[in-house]
């Protein structure tokens, strides 16, 4: 069963309850940050901030503040999973894409592959971290932490097909249902107030055609194949060496 979370900017008041709930549930430390003139704090995703609310001031006949929630998009066809050489980056049947820390070697191929610039490398642990879509909570019958904390229903969650159908019936424009290169996402954006502006750089600037950094995936895949080949060769040589040593000792 595939699920989806939706951010509705029309209803967001910028309270950042979602940020706080995310940190608490994932037990991430409080970060030391500096003042940002647009009030976005921290200014971008970090290994300890899996989601942020971006504040943007626009002029459209009058000055407006608009909010955009950023987090992993949980792609249908996630480039980060394809790029990961160890299987640390995993996609579940529910649609969540998450990192298995015990398998992460800190190669950062997922960082290069992600078209949304989401995974963040932590120099302290040597591993990559990002939003998990609260897959542990979903499997326990709970809402994602950020969705549960939202006081204005700017965040909604449910079975993906049902959520999309309901939003469309209510006249919402949806971003993420289908996208080139990633096949669509399990984090969606929906709006009535800002129709036609979700991909407008002046407003939200979500990519119309998400793509990895130019040349990143072919290079990653070639290197991954090379690493795998070297690992197999090393294993064979290691086995041959100890077989020879065993024969010598007889």
UniProtKB/TrEMBL annotation:
Residues 9-23, 63-159 form the 4Fe-4S ferredoxin-type domain. Keywords: 4Fe-4S, Iron, Iron-sulfur, Membrane, Metal-binding, Repeat, Transmembrane, Transmembrane helix. The keyword Iron applies. It is found in: Cell envelope. The keyword Heme does not apply. InterPro entries: 4Fe4S_Fe-S-bd (IPR017896), 4Fe4S_Fe_S_CS (IPR017900), FDH_Electron_Transfer_Unit (IPR051555), Formate_DH_Fe-S_su (IPR014603). PANTHER family: FORMATE DEHYDROGENASE, NITRATE-INDUCIBLE, IRON-SULFUR SUBUNIT (PTHR43545:SF6). Gene3D superfamilies: 3.30.70.20. Binds 4 [4Fe-4S] clusters per subunit. Its main location: other. Its cofactor is [4Fe-4S] cluster. GO terms for molecular function: 4 iron, 4 sulfur cluster binding; metal ion binding; oxidoreductase activity. [4Fe-4S] cluster 3 binds at residues 72, 75, 80, 114. [4Fe-4S] cluster 4 binds at residues 84, 104, 107, 110. Pfam families: Fer4_11, Fer4_4. [4Fe-4S] cluster 1 binds at residues 12, 15, 18, 150. This is Formate dehydrogenase subunit beta. The chain crosses the membrane at residues 223-242. It comes from Ignicoccus pacificus DSM 13166. [4Fe-4S] cluster 2 binds at residues 22, 131, 134, 146. GO terms for biological process: cellular respiration; formate oxidation.
